[in-house]
Amino acid sequence: MIPIEELKNTKEILHSCLPLFIALGDEIRQQMILDIAAHGERGMNVTEITENYSLSRPAISHHLKVLKDYGLVATRKEGTQVFYRSIVHENLGKLSEFITSIEHVIESLERGEK
Predict the structure, then answer these.
(1) For residues 37, 58, 23 and 91, what is the CA-based torsion angle, rounded to 10 degrees?
(2) What is the pLDDT of residues 6-54, one digit of tens each?
(3) Cβ atoms within 10 A of the Cβ of 63, count?
(4) Beta carbons within 8 Å of 24's beta carbon, 6+ residues apart
(5) Quick one: which of 44, 60, 78, 95 could link to 48 by a disulfide (CB 3.0–4.6 Å)?
(6) What is the pTM of this model?
(7) Residue 113 pLDDT > 60
(8) Kind and range of the H or E element at 83?
(9) Burial class (CB in 10 A: 0-12, 13-18, 19+), 72
(10) What is the DSSP-derived secondary structure letter of residue 53?
(11) CB 73 within 8 A of CB 84
């Protein structure tokens, strides 16, 4: 039998990952993360990002806000420009912990521990 505490822990880990799943659940945001990451530490400003999409600037800003709020991009200001850079790697530990926890639960179920 899978201990209740282990299931509770897995649920808590999943809950902590939900913001990442929400942010990554949109194809435009997925592509934005890849585009921004491709520019390394310099990142991209809103004008550069907007040039790559057929979306309005407010729509781009909304997607960038979601990515920033959920910890997938960080900003830095240079004069009047704001540059976005990828910090997805900072959240990989959370996702790895979730995957490991789910794998353990699945292995327990396969062994007949219900």
Answers:
(1) 40
(2) 888 889 999 988 888 999 999 999 999 999 999 999 999 999 999 999 9
(3) 20
(4) 30, 33, 72
(5) 44
(6) 0.78
(7) no
(8) strand 81-86
(9) buried
(10) S
(11) yes
